[in-house]
Amino acid sequence: MDSNRGQNGIQLLLAAEQEAQHIVNAARNAKMARLKQAKEEAERDIADFRTQMEAEFQRKLAESSGDSGANVKRLEGETAEKIGQLKIESSRISHDMVTMLLKHVTTVKN
């Protein structure tokens, strides 16, 4: 009877080991499936983020390109204003410059 009990105990241990191996394999497979799912979700999130950033970049590019016409007009206005200021300044001091040049040219040094 002791040998029968020993055989029964061994059989129970083998069955428990097989059941534990099945549980470990199921957990490993579930973990692998979850990792694969997480990777797919991350790839989807990355693709969505990339699409969003690309759309925002294109929007900003369109805004800055659209403003280039306005920038050109603004720069033309500023340039014309500065040219006007230079003309006023040159007309203001031109008489003094001509006088100074004539003085230096006509002065004889020994």
List the helices and strands and how they pair.
Layout: H1 2-106
Oligomerization = single chain
Mean pLDDT: 89
Which stretches of 5+ consecutive residues score pLDDT under 50? none
Give the strand tally.
0
Give me the strand/helix succession. H
**Helix fraction by DSSP (H/I, runs of at least 4):** over 70%
Radius of gyration: 45 Å
Distance between the termini: 145 Å
Helix/strand structural class: mainly alpha
Q: Per DSSP, what share of the residues sits in E-state strands of 2 or more residues?
A: under 5%
Overall morphology: rod-shaped
**How many helical elements?**
1
* Biggest sheet character: none
Explain this structure to me?
By secondary structure, this protein is an all-alpha fold. The protein has one helix spanning 2-106. The radius of gyration is 45 Å and the shape is rod-shaped. It is 95% helix and 0% strand. The protein has one helix and no strands. The model has no long low-confidence stretch (mean pLDDT 89).
Brief description of this entry?
With 110 residues, the protein is mostly helical. It has one helix spanning 2-106.
From the structure above, extract its key features:
110 residues
